[in-house]
UniProtKB/TrEMBL annotation:
InterPro entries (UniProt xref): MdtA-like_b-barrel, MdtA-like_BSH, MdtA-like_C, MdtA-like_HH, RND_pump_MFP
Organism: Teichococcus deserti
Domain Multidrug resistance protein MdtA-like beta-barrel: 229-307
Record's subcellular location: Cell membrane
Low complexity biased stretches: 37-46
Limits of the Multidrug resistance protein MdtA-like C-terminal permuted SH3 domain: 315-376
Keyword set, alphabetical order: Cell inner membrane, Cell membrane, Membrane, Signal, Transport
Chain ranges of the Multidrug resistance protein MdtA-like barrel-sandwich hybrid domain: 83-225
NCBIfam families per record: RND_mfp (TIGR01730)
GO MF term set: efflux transmembrane transporter activity
GO CC, alphabetical: efflux pump complex
Family annotation (Pfam families): Beta-barrel_RND, BSH_RND, HH_MFP_RND, RND-MFP_C
Signal peptide: 1-31
Protein name: Efflux transporter periplasmic adaptor subunit
C-alpha cells in the first residue's frame, strides 16, 4: 500500500530538525574545548647549537706602576706663629691713633702717639741743668790743674790741692748723672710713640684717641697677630710616628693644607715641630708645620684638611679607584679584561687612595686593563666589549 502524499512534508521536517540538532551539538563541544592549551614548544634536539652568551659593554683603564706619595690625611687648625699684645710703658693720654682695626702693619710702624708735652718740658729743664753742671765741671777741673802746678812749686798746701781734685771729680760725676737722667727722659719720650713690635694684622682697638693709659695696665691698646709665615697644628696616629721620624732625619716632610670648600689650590709647607711624647689619651702625636702665607690663604683659628707626605713609594701598583669592588666580608677585587675579551676577577689588597687612584697589592701587571665602569653586571669569565668613557658634561 503506497503512503499517502500527506506524509512527505512531515518526513522532510523531521530530517531537517535532526540536522540542526547535530550541528548545535558540534558547536557546543568546540566551545567547551580550553583555548589556553597551546601546542607544546619544541625542545631542540641533542645536536642543536645553544644561543651565545650576551656581551656586556664596559669602560676600562690601565693599571700603572710608578712613584706614588705616601699620604697621611688628617685635620688641623691654623695657629699664629706669634701674637703680641701692645701696651704702653708710660702713663699718658692717647693724642693720635695712626692705624685702623684689622689693618696690616709692619715692624716699627707707628701705632699711637701719647701726649708728651710734660716729658718734653722736663727734658728741656734737665738739658739746662746739664749745661750748668758741665760749666762747673770745666771750672773745677781748671782749678784742680792750677793747684797741681802750684803744689809742685811749693806755693800751696796739700789739703788745698786735694780739695780741688775732689771738687773736679764731683763736678764730672754730676755731669754724668745729668747725662744719664736725660737719657732716661728721652727714652720716656720715645715710649710715647707706640710702635709695632712685629709685622702682622691688628685686631680690635679697644682704646681710641683721648683715652688715658697707664704703664702695664691689663687692657692692651691693640693685639698684633703674625699671619706670614703661619703655622698649622695637627695630630697623626702613633702608628705613623716611625714614618715621620724617618722623614725628619732626611729633611723636612712636605705638608699641604686646604680649607674645606676653598676652590684655591692647597698651600704647601713643611714640618717644623714634632712633639716629644705621644698623647696617651688619644694615641696621637702632635705636629706643627710652617707655611708661607703672603695672600692670607690661611687664617688663624681656621679648620683645615691636612695631608702629610713623609715619603714617596718608588714602584707602587695603582688603578683608578672606581675599579676596586667590595665583596662579601669587605673583600676587595677588580675585573681584568684578558686577551679574549673576558673579564677575570682578581682579589686585591687596598693599601691607600692617592689622588683618585687606589694603591694595591695584587697579581696585576702594569698595563693590564681593569674595568672601571660596568663591573656591577660582570661575573668571572663574562664576555665584554670595550666602549669609550662618557665625556663629562660641561
Amino acid at each position: 500500500m503506497m503512503p499517502s502524499r500527506s506524509l512527505f512534508p512531515l518526513l522532510a521536517g523531521a530530517v531537517s530538525a535532526g540536522l540542526v540538532a547535530m550541528l548545535a551539538g558540534s558547536a557546543t563541544l568546540q566551545a567547551q574545548t580550553p583555548t589556553s592549551q597551546a601546542p607544546a614548544s619544541q625542545t631542540p634536539g641533542p645536536g642543536a647549537t645553544p644561543a651565545p652568551a650576551p656581551t656586556l659593554p664596559v669602560v676600562v683603564s690601565r693599571a700603572e706602576r710608578g712613584p706614588v706619595p705616601l699620604e697621611i690625611t688628617t685635620n688641623g687648625n691654623v695657629v699664629a706663629e706669634a701674637t703680641v699684645s701692645v701696651r704702653s710703658r708710660v702713663d699718658g693720654q692717647i693724642e693720635k691713633q695712626h692705624v685702623e682695626e684689622g689693618q696690616r702693619v709692619e715692624r716699627g710702624q707707628l701705632l699711637f702717639t701719647l701726649d708728651s708735652r710734660m716729658t718734653q718740658a722736663l727734658l728741656a729743664q734737665q738739658e739746662a741743668q746739664l749745661a750748668r753742671d758741665r760749666a762747673q765741671s770745666v771750672r773745677a777741673r781748671s782749678d784742680a790743674n792750677r793747684y797741681a802746678s802750684l803744689r809742685g812749686e811749693g806755693f800751696t798746701a796739700a789739703q788745698r790741692y786735694e780739695q780741688a781734685q775732689a771738687d773736679a771729680a764731683a763736678a764730672e760725676a754730676t755731669v754724668r748723672a745729668g747725662e744719664a737722667l736725660i737719657s732716661q727722659t728721652r727714652l720716656t719720650l720715645d715710649f710715647a710713640s707706640i710702635r709695632a713690635e712685629i709685622a702682622g694684622r691688628l685686631g680690635a682697638l679697644p682704646l681710641t684717641e683721648g683715652n688715658l693709659v697707664r704703664a702695664g695696665e691689663n687692657t692692651p691698646l691693640a693685639t698684633i697677630t703674625q699671619t706670614d709665615p703661619i703655622q698649622v697644628q695637627f695630630s697623626v696616629p702613633e702608628r705613623w710616628l716611625p714614618e715621620v721620624q724617618a722623614s725628619l732625619r732626611g729633611g723636612r716632610p712636605v705638608v699641604t693644607a686646604h680649607p674645606p670648600g676653598d676652590r684655591h689650590p692647597p698651600v704647601q709647607g713643611s714640618v717644623v715641630f714634632l712633639d716629644s711624647q705621644v698623647d696617651t689619651t688619644s694615641g696621637t702625636v702632635q705636629i706643627k708645620a710652617r707655611f708661607a702665607n703672603p695672600d692670607n690663604a690661611l687664617w688663624p683659628g681656621q679648620y683645615v684638611n691636612v695631608v702629610l707626605v713623609p715619603r714617596v713609594e718608588p714602584d707602587a701598583l695603582s688603578v683608578p679607584v672606581q675599579a676596586v669592588q667590595t665583596g662579601s666580608g669587605n673583600s676587595r677585587y677588580v675585573y681584568v679584561v684578558d686577551g679574549e675579551s673576558r673579564a677575570r676577577r682578581r682579589a686585591v689588597t687596598l693599601q691607600r687612595v692617592v689622588g683618585g687612584r687606589a694603591v694595591l697589592k695584587a697579581e696585576i701587571a702594569a698595563g693590564d686593563k681593569v674595568v672601571i665602569e660596568g663591573a656591577q653586571l660582570l661575573s668571572d669569565g663574562a664576555r665584554v666589549v670595550e666602549r669609550p668613557a662618557a665625556r663629562p658634561q660641561s
